[in-house]
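COURSE: Structural Biology Practicum
ASSIGNMENT: Worksheet 4, Part C
STUDENT ID: 0417
INSTRUCTIONS: Below are two proteins. For each, the amino acid sequence is given first, followed by its structure token string. Answer the questions at the end about the second protein only.

PROTEIN I
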Amino acid sequence: MKTIEDLGDLRGRRVLVRSDLNVPLDGQTITDDGRVRASLPTIKRLSDAGARVLVVAHLGRPKGTPDPAYTLKPVAERLAELLGSPVLFANDTVGAEAQRIASAMQDGQVAILENVRFNAGETSKDDDERGAFADQLAALADAFVSDGFGVVHRKQASVYDVAARLPAAVGSLVQAEVEVLERLTSSPERPYVVVLGGSKVSDKLGVIDSLIEKADSLLIGGGMVFTFLAAQGHEVGSSLLEDDQLDVVKGYIEQAAAKDVDLVLPTDIVVAPEFAADAPPTTVAADSMPSDQMGLDIGPDSAAAFADVVRSAHTVFWNGPMGVFEMDAFAVGTKAVAQALTEIDGLSVVGGGDSAAAVRQLGFADDDFGHISTGGGASLEYLEGKTLPGLAVLEGDSP
């Protein structure tokens, strides 16, 4: 893939940067600006080189029409604070305002275009409709930089089609993400431990298939663990359960044993009668869950055991919290795993999404870990070995 250096002298050239600024909002207040901060190095680098930087990004899922709840205006304001210089804001993506700003920008200036998903062409499955919108985006700029790792697994106009229409390069964020994930897939230093959580086994099928061949230990927590416990014949009460995945999970258990992979499941579970922050928590053995309770976290013994396995590793990939970390009573398992990741002698990778949100909410700093991915879904698909359209197009391949 070409890098920014390959684009040559950028002074005075308009560069369209696809960033991932899909931040969580409480009204118009950003509650976690991690993705904005992650986008800074590439934007600042282009600005310092004298480029006229047009940032395109999405926020939420506004379904192809403008929705004030998903405006990028708060993100533009936060980006300006972090850059320490003004950021222009276009109230459309390819309309009159975007065209005016693109034409009037000075060298080094930065502008954010309004939410790209306010336009139906961005996510259209129709190649012609998506291509027509990409033509409008491409007309605003002289070059394209792909720096939104959280969307490179999507074949969308601002990710895929624009890259085929302009001189294109990879930004420093995407470049760093790919380098880290390549280490996880091709040359992990051992012991290599994978920790998977989150709600559903079905969300992780591909990555389990891939990593059960590569990891030394696979630790399972979160809501998905109850399908594993049920596959072993245990009662799981009213916990999350995917009945249609029981046979698949039984296969994973057998496969891990056959390949001498240490598949670690919790030995105790924190349960409660309902999904609520004030529900009274009780710790029970994983094979003795009451039928009228739901599991909301791995238990303290399991948290300690998981942490011990993590600390013994030289490479760890973690995707998915161990419990409902948003509620204090059910955050212990997630916090124990996060703490252990900060203590390993080697590479620790937090695989984006809820895991990244969890470590920040629980008080950890980004630099406590070797790498925090900005794209949970993209990270998983890369580790599964899937072709990611936003990367393939930069390599000259068509997915």
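PROTEIN II
(use this one for the questions)
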Amino acid sequence: MDRHIRFDRLRNFRDLGGYATADGRRVRAGLLYRSDGLGKLRTGTEDWDRFLALGVTTVIDLRHGWEVERQGRVPEHPSFTYHNLSIEHRPYDQPSLGPETEPGPYLAERYLEVAEDGTKEIRRALELIADAAVSGSPLVFHCASGKDRTGQLAALVLSLLGVPEPTVVEDFSLTELAAPALLADWRERNGGRTPAWPGYGRAPGSVMRLFLAALQRRYGSVEAYVADALELDAAALAATLRARLLEPAPASWPPLTYRRAAEADAGDLVRLRDSAALWQLARGIDQWKPGEKDEEHFRTRMREGEVWLAYAGAHLAGAWELWWDDPAAWGPRPPEAGYVHRLMTVPHTAPPGAGRALLAEAESRIAASGRTFARLDCLAANPRLRAYYEAAGYTVVGEQHAKTDGAGSPYAVTLLEKRLPG
């Protein structure tokens, strides 16, 4: 479910596998990883055992030499080779930036500097990635937080693989899930102080979107940048990466199974919702924001209604909340309906059609309770989601112009309902 691989000390270690390409294939899992600083690993620990179990044969460290000396490098081991390729030639101090600095334009400009200053190192990194791909050997690249330099290299590789830009932006923004831990680590290293820049550790999608747009304006495309600035055969490189790192989409999927959530699932539900929110934002869908719902929200919904999880085999595929009344949106009503909230699927790895299957299962739960209607709402400003529910048999029956969930200003929602079979 969670693209982040859990370590005790690493905060932003992720598998790039599972992303779909424009031609319908997907990136193979277990071959290409991105991470924050591997110098935090220690031999003889569970983290070290977890890392070695991945079978990594190549480590690319994108940090400055002085960062390696100060923060340490991944411990030596005969199973992998280590390469220090500092792609950033003009260091900048993010924690000390002023609060007026807007992350999107500022970081995108720094990324373009890195793309033009670090051509020798970026070229070598891509060559190493291609070599590892040819041999079928797992590789990891990292910087300090696994966001900026790592995010740039990931964007280049994913673009060469044919992954669409919204997914590239989404992959960059997933550092948002690690941002609180990255900030806590910085405070611990700096005597409890807070960075002057509120954007420290954050990864809004606008940063990557602006960087890719700047790269396109200057070179025409990522492939043209690779050919002109890095002096690589971009077509041959892309062909090699695609032949070795892509696989066909699954022809069949395990049947979905369902279970009611327990309090221990609250953390996974928060991660699932935040991941879904980042997926939406990367595609211009203004519905959810990361961090809006915490574990207590889901525990409350379990106590006052129902929360359900869906699995494809052993893997989480999605979840939803089922309420038995919803006065904030619908006002006082007799017990004639069930109200579906936070219908969400795992981005990129849920089976096709999972959202519709989850909705049908929720409707069957409502019908089994003897109620006549399934009801839900979506932001009035989200016509795409409204159309999705209308295609599933729901009818618009009104709007609530001042819904509030107690967490912010009132907002307008479209009310939809579906009469269930008797």
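ANSWER KEY EXCERPT:
Q1: The first helix runs from residue 46 to 53.
Q2: The CA atoms of residues 276 and 347 lie 6 Å apart.
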